[in-house]
Please model this.
Amino acid sequence: MFRVTLTHLILIYMAVLLGILCFAWVIGELIRFRQDRHQRRSTVVCDICGHSFEDPSEAELLTCPSCGRLNERGSVREI
Model:
């Protein structure tokens, strides 16, 4: 059998807890990244009037609700 002191038990407990927290953080970041990517994909900014609107469809040409111009779906850059 292994001899384990109280100090080693505390270190093992802390290492396992830290590993679980790191794993939960990585999973949360992956979920947030996927949601953010989907949000950017559905947001369109008009080239003429600068109006931003959301369109969840997969169409490549979208009509701006403000000025009526056709816009191509592209990536929205955040400042």
Q: What stands out?
A: The chain has a mean pLDDT of 87.
